[in-house]
Structure formats: C-alpha cells, structure tokens
Design brief:
about 400 residues
C-alpha cells in the first residue's frame, strides 16, 4: 500500500484552515452592517458569537464522525456548509435572524467539521513533532483574516457588504472542497521511518490511548478545558472588536476604517505565528509552562493597550496578544495528545473545543455591551488584563494522569 506524502497533507490542511479562519475578519463587517441596516453593535457581534459557539459544538461531533467514517467526508461536508453559510448571508438585508441562521449556524457547523479534521489527521501523521505540527495545522486558521480582511474591506467599498458575503462564500467553498479531498489518516500502525518515541514523550502520556469517556472522567481533562477557555476568552474579545477598537484608540492619529482593516490583517499574522511558535516552544519548555508565560504576557499587554494611540504601537501590542491567543490553539491539541494519546484525539479534543464556543459567548458580547454603556473600550480591556493574570495560576497546577 502506497503511503501518502504527509507534508502534502499538511499543506492541504493549512489551506483549508486559511479559508476557515477568515471568520476572524468579522470585525471588518461590524460597522458596515450597523450603518446599512441600523443594527446595534451587540446584535452584529452576536453573529460572530453564534458562529464560534456552534464551531465548538460541531467540532465534537465532527471528531466522533471522522473516527467512524474517516476524515475526508467530514472535511468535504464542513467546507460545503461553511461556504454555503457565508454565501447565504448575502440575502440577509434587514433580516438579522437570517444572518444568524446563515453565517452563524450553518457557517458555524461547517467551521467545526472542517476545523477538527486537520488537527486530528496531522497528529497521527506526525507523532514525532506533535507540538510543531499542531501549530502548523491550526496556524492557517489564524492567518485567515490576513487574507480576508483587506479583500473584504475593499469589496465592501466597491460592491457593498451583502454582495461581499456572496463572493467570499464562493471562494471559501472552492478552497475548502479542494483541500478537504486530501484529508486521510495514515495506515494502522504507521510511524515515521526510523522514529521511536523518546523517554520524555513517553513520560508525558498517561501510558495508553484513552477513550473519550475515560478522558473526561479525569480532572486533568477539565483543567485543560478551563485553560483553553480562559485563554480564548481574552483573545476572542479583542478579535471580535478589533477594527472598532483600532479606530477608537487611533482616532487622534488618523486611523480610518480602511487602515483599521489593514491592521486587522497584519495582527492576524500574530494569531497564525503564535500557533506555530508557541506550539514549537512547548516541545521544549513543556505545555504547562508555555501557558503560564502566555498568561503573564497578556496581563501586561491588555493593561497598556487602552493607553496607546499610534497605529504602529496598537498593531504591535495586538499582534503579540494574538500570538498568545493562537498559541493556546497550537499547544492544546498536543497537550491533550500527551495526556490521553493520539488515537482518539478527534473526539477528545473536539469536545474540548466547546471551551472555544463558550468563551465566544461571554467575551465578545460583554466587550460590546461595556463599550455601549461607557462609550470606551478602556475598562473592558483592563478587566481582561486582571482575568488573565489570575489565570496564570492554573497551568502550574496541572499534571499528567496517573499511569494505569
């Protein structure tokens, strides 16, 4: 039996994640939608919240499905639903409920199905590079806004916000279906030629491949869930309001909507780079210490962010914050595989992604409501700084499950 090129599969996974990660450019649509249809900021932000919440739930079911039917059918279904959902959003003029249904629900299901596949597949193809490959697997997702934000901003100016959804939906559909076709698992018992796990890799794992029910019965599983939830809550609050935050804080220095869209694109590189960088770092300094460092960094960065006005300073600080945000997604799949094995990582990590969904409910909506109440993002950003500072205690307490 001919074994597929694992690096080719990894490349296809990255392209698929780039298309899916375009959801992170949502803040570019916020102001145009509020102006065009009179919707409030929290109402528009709820679309993004629904999409990410549904992503977290759908990723769990996608993980179960790919364990039974293989990754390709799950990837193709996810890509189709995602592209369809974004395309259908072009018919949501004065129909907020349709925007929630199309972009939020249908698109979110597609996101969840599509997101979990490259993560689960590449962990099996790269047991020798768990941290690095999970960073690469989800790095494309973080880079999605880099490609989409500037394109979407220019399309909105030229053809309008609803027609932009139609064009983007067709583009996403083509890319995700093409990439999804390459998703496949390695043969049973396969491992890289000449590779054997090191003593450190063996010691990090609980001694066997856990089933989903066994994993969730350990306190370690829920500690990892909480780690992901806390890290996501901070970063996704910023992501959901990036463009308006940049325009508000940089108003005195001439940050326009178009400039802010470009900043969103640049900052999204941090999300992508962080997924690869911190995942790679975690192979050396351990996953738990990586989370500890990321929380401490965010404490300082969120605290100083409201005091900045220059576009360069805003971009740099937000870039590093999103590196930490992306780092959680890059590191956590390997963290889960270390503790519970890679055989059932699809459903195990898929269920863990519900933390992403629940974080998307709280963070962005609270941020939007606090801004509407006070007229500024300053207090919300300071509250986030305090939250991540307290969160830094948790990774120091986590340890692997006992061997059985």
């Amino acid at each position: 039996m001919r074994v597929a090129n694992r690096w080719g599969i990894a490349l296809a996974g990255v392209f698929m994640q780039i298309a899916l990660g375009a959801v992170y450019a949502w803040s570019v649509f916020r102001i145009p939608l509020t102006k065009a249809f009179g919707w409030t900021s929290p109402q528009v932000t709820l679309t993004f919240t629904i999409s990410i919440f549904v992503l977290g739930i759908a990723a769990f079911f996608g993980g179960l499905w790919l364990n039974k039917s293989g990754p390709r059918i799950v990837a193709l279904t996810g890509g189709f639903l995602y592209g369809l959902g974004v395309f259908l959003a072009s018919f949501s003029a004065n129909k907020l409920w349709w925007l929630y249904l199309s972009y939020g629900l249908i698109g979110g299901i597609g996101l969840g199905f599509g997101y979990i596949v490259p993560v689960a597949v590449l962990l099996k193809w790269f047991p020798d590079r768990r941290g690095l490959i999970t960073g690469i697997a989800v790095g494309g997702f973080g880079a999605g806004a880099l490609v989409t934000a500037p394109i979407a901003a220019r399309l909105i100016q030229s053809v309008g916000v609803l027609q932009t959804f139609a064009y983007l939906g067709i583009g996403y559909l083509i890319v995700t279906l093409a990439a999804g076709f390459f998703m496949q698992n390695p043969p049973d018992g396969w491992k890289p030629e000449g590779w054997t796990p090191s003593a450190a890799q063996i010691s990090r794992q609980g001694g066997r491949d856990y089933k989903l029910g066994e994993a969730v019965s350990t306190w370690q599983y829920w500690a990892l869930w909480l780690l992901l939830f806390l890290n996501v809550s901070a970063g996704i609050s910023l992501i959901s309001q990036e463009s308006p935050i940049f325009q508000e804080l940089g108003k005195a220095t001439g940050v326009t909507a178009l400039i802010a869209a470009g900043m969103v694109g640049v900052v999204s590189i941090g999300n992508a780079v962080g997924r690869v960088f911190w995942a790679w770092v975690s192979d050396g300094i351990t996953r738990k210490f990586t989370f500890f460092v990321m929380f401490l960094l965010q404490l300082g960065l969120f605290w100083v962010l409201p005091s900045l006005t220059a576009s360069t300073a805003l971009t740099v600080v937000s870039f590093i914050i999103l590196m930490c945000y992306g780092g959680g997604f890059g590191t956590m799949p390997a963290f889960a595989a270390d503790y519970f094995g890679s055989k059932n990582v699809g459903p195990i990590y898929g269920l863990m992604l519900t933390a992403w969904g629940f974080a998307s409910v709280g963070g962005p909506l609270i941020m939007a409501k606090m801004h509407d109440a006070s007229g500024t993002y300053r207090d919300a950003l300071h509250y986030i700084a305090i939250g991540v500072g307290v969160s830094a205690i948790l990774p120091l307490l986590v340890r692997p499950p006992k061997r059985t």
